[in-house]
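Study this:
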Amino acid sequence: MRDLKAAAISAEADTSDTAVRRRSLIAACSAHAVHDGLTDLIYVLLPIWQSQFGISYAMVGLLRGSYSGMMAAFQLLASRLARRWGRERLLVGGTALAGVAYLIAGQAGGLTVLLMALLLGGLGASTQHPLASSLITDTHEAGGGVKEALAQYNFAGDIGKTLIPGLVGLLLVVASWQTSVTLMGLLGLAAAGLLWWLIPAQSEQLAVKQKSTNTMTGNGSVSGLRALLLTGTLDSAVRMGFLTFLPFLLQSKGAGTAGIGLALSLLFVGGAFGKLLCGYLGARIGMMKTVWVTESATSLLILCAVWLPLTGLMVMLPLLGLALNGTSSVLYGVVPELAGAGKREHAFALFYTGTIAGGAIAPIVFGRLGDVAGVPVALISLAVVLLLTLPLSWLVQKGVNS
């Protein structure tokens, strides 16, 4: 009789844990989709802001880099503050802050207010990656369950990158950019309310239980982790630099506002499937071979983007997005293999901070190059820089094998 009662209690606990995992995964995926969508919406707005405020490419890069820079700078702090104030409270508050930032940007009449709004938005966005990803890793079982959940989390981010910029691109046909941006601010506030309702109160207790039984440890290769961080930083720098210049490249080929929104959607659709495909490819042929395939293809396709006419570029964009975004998924999956015992969350935070910092700096540096030599030269330089990841991936593989 006692055995039956114990079995019933155990089954009820397992069902409860499953519900907590499901709600946590939905909350993390929702946060990733909204935050990534709001972050990459800036690419659609950059040509409009350049025209309205009469700014240089270097200033365009500064606007883009300000958001990413704040997001990168405060990620480690966000993970520490979450221990004091609670992960749910900080993630909801950060999402609401990003929404408020877009509301302020929608009322901006000058460059100063716009820049302050973007800095505020980056501060709010800094909570998402470390807290949402740790919410998943802490509430899911070790092994395949965590990796599958993280794959869905990464995929959700690219869905947000596809839908939100595409939606705003269509809105700009019938409404002003101020109205469109204000509506996205309201979306951010609505997402904060959804997260407050979705994140289960039991997630903290389940996280403690999972940590007590978690056996996922890496080999602690410092050299491998450094090489991985540098590889991810260069990959992110080229990706963000290309995305910053893509609207202007499209504009020079005759694309309008709606066409730029459609182009970004095509690129991000390819990127979403690239993360899934390259994850499977990496498991099949290994990290290094996958990186060589994706980075070489990305470099070649960026050169093609410079030389192709508008129609050819639009057709090619999903394939470019697949290669451009696919590498990050492979690199992200290597972090646990290189993290030392008990340092997995810290390794993830370092990886995110480095890659986002690279993405923040690249638009400024290459924006200046674009002012001096033109957009095509800046894009060709990005394609060349990306090839540096090939020897670095060999060092990463060496660290994994050690």
Q: What stands out?
A: The domain at 18-216 is CATH 1.20.1250.20 (Growth Hormone; Chain: A;). Residues 25 and 106 are 31 Å apart (CA to CA).
